[in-house]
Amino acid sequence: MIGRIAGVILHRAMDHVLIDVRGVGYIVHVSQRTAAALPPVGEAVALYTDLLVREDLLQLFGFPTLLEKEWHRLLMSVQGVGAKASMAILGTLGAEGVGRAIALGDWSAIKAAQGVGPKLAQRVVMELKDKAPSVMALGGALTVDVAAGDEVIEPAAKPARRPAATVSASASATADALSALLNLGYGQGEAAAAVAEAAGANEGAEAPALIRAALKLLAPKG
């Protein structure tokens, strides 16, 4: 199983990238969102990967974070969701957006992805809603992209570069806020939905602000 690739970009397209790894070129399929965020040709890149194996086909799919790879794995577990649909959903919403939509039961957000109809979107929400809180809680731990010591060997005697390690502040804040609410005794489902709604209304907020906003949403009405 190829779980991760680090190398130099030789070619970029809307839905895939060709990465040179010590003289071997790997075609890695990516979402449009990931493709748009990739560095230019000739620059170093690292992607977590999932290998799809069929009788007559081997395809690598790439993700900028382990959190996104985990959501891809879960989306693919839903009947009717293939790799193309999963990448379309992740490309439309991103990892945090998928978690938010599923936790809130917002199937219309899932339906916004190309090729995903209302029935399939509803099935995704129904089958994954109970799993969303655990993935959201792991968000901070599943978001580190490239290890600080990674080194990429580049062709044509270019100096080796080290891709910068990246961490999604929003995923980490969401995970911390959800953990805090669970420690306060709230159920996983209601806590995840409150944090997801708070994160959607307070984009970029840190954990303390998300906790306060979520607690307001959970407060008894009336």
From TrEMBL:
Residues 173-219 form the Holliday junction DNA helicase RuvA C-terminal domain. Residues 1-62 form the DNA helicase Holliday junction RuvA type domain. Keywords: ATP-binding, Cytoplasm, DNA damage, DNA recombination, DNA repair, DNA-binding, Helicase, Hydrolase, Nucleotide-binding. GO terms for cellular component: cytoplasm; Holliday junction helicase complex; Holliday junction resolvase complex. The keyword 4Fe-4S does not apply. Residues 171-222 are annotated as: Domain III. It comes from the Bacteria. It is found in: Cytoplasm. Its main location: cytoplasm. Coiled coil: none annotated. The keyword S-adenosyl-L-methionine does not apply. Residues 1-64 are annotated as: Domain I. GO terms for molecular function: ATP binding; four-way junction DNA binding; four-way junction helicase activity. One of its GO terms (biological process) is DNA repair. SUPFAM superfamilies: DNA helicase RuvA subunit, C-terminal domain, Nucleic acid-binding proteins, RuvA domain 2-like. Homotetramer. Forms an RuvA(8)-RuvB(12)-Holliday junction (HJ) complex. HJ DNA is sandwiched between 2 RuvA tetramers; dsDNA enters through RuvA and exits via RuvB. An RuvB hexamer assembles on each DNA strand where it exits the tetramer. Each RuvB hexamer is contacted by two RuvA subunits (via domain III) on 2 adjacent RuvB subunits; this complex drives branch migration. In the full resolvosome a probable DNA-RuvA(4)-RuvB(12)-RuvC(2) complex forms which resolves the HJ. The RuvA-RuvB-RuvC complex processes Holliday junction (HJ) DNA during genetic recombination and DNA repair, while the RuvA-RuvB complex plays an important role in the rescue of blocked DNA replication forks via replication fork reversal (RFR). RuvA specifically binds to HJ cruciform DNA, conferring on it an open structure. The RuvB hexamer acts as an ATP-dependent pump, pulling dsDNA into and through the RuvAB complex. HJ branch migration allows RuvC to scan DNA until it finds its consensus sequence, where it cleaves and resolves the cruciform DNA. Belongs to the RuvA family. Has three domains with a flexible linker between the domains II and III and assumes an 'L' shape. Domain III is highly mobile and contacts RuvB. This is Holliday junction branch migration complex subunit RuvA. It comes from Albidovulum denitrificans. The lineage of its organism: Bacteria, Pseudomonadati, Pseudomonadota, Alphaproteobacteria, Rhodobacterales.
